[in-house]
């Protein structure tokens, strides 16, 4: 793969990872609830989910969805339902007020599980890989080039969210966020529900 093409791929992956959405909200929630380790666990498992979609894309996920639009619609609606469920959970947590260690406690295993589920159930992520990442794949692309695409997507996604978790768990940052956790939960819930409704209304632009 030419270096210029790889730079374009890396830029696309970075923009996708840094855009606000349910993935960022997830890492934030687990970092607030359990500190640095759960936040990092959520980041790494989310990166594995991203890698799976990247792998499916280089294997021809785009062609599959074009040939079977009903399958794509089912995946999208399933992802919207899961996003709505996460949004309702966040709103309920927000009504409790400030961050409650018992109500919001999280563990590394729970964070890892939800990180994977959010990645696999995020219709925006599916559209991202089908619409953008698949443009870098050609029928005659070598196995090494395909592996580079998958690894690039995984490393950029995992690296960004690990940076978020480490930054939020800093001794000066986390207390400030904990004091405002109820507002963060409410904003997260509204964001997730709005995204779910947008998916139901039609394709994400």
TrEMBL record:
GO CC annotation, single: plasma membrane
Entry's localization field: Cell membrane
Membrane topology: Multi-pass membrane protein
Record keywords, A-Z: Cell membrane, Membrane, Transmembrane, Transmembrane helix
GO molecular function annotations of the record: amino acid transmembrane transporter activity
Domain of life where this protein originates: Bacteria
Transmembrane segments: 41-61, 68-88, 116-136, 143-163, 183-201
Record-linked PANTHER family: AMINO ACID EFFLUX PERMEASE RHTB FAMILY (PTHR30086:SF16), ARGININE EXPORTER PROTEIN ARGO (PTHR30086)
Protein name, UniProt field: LysE family translocator
Lineage: Bacteria, Pseudomonadati, Pseudomonadota, Gammaproteobacteria, Oceanospirillales
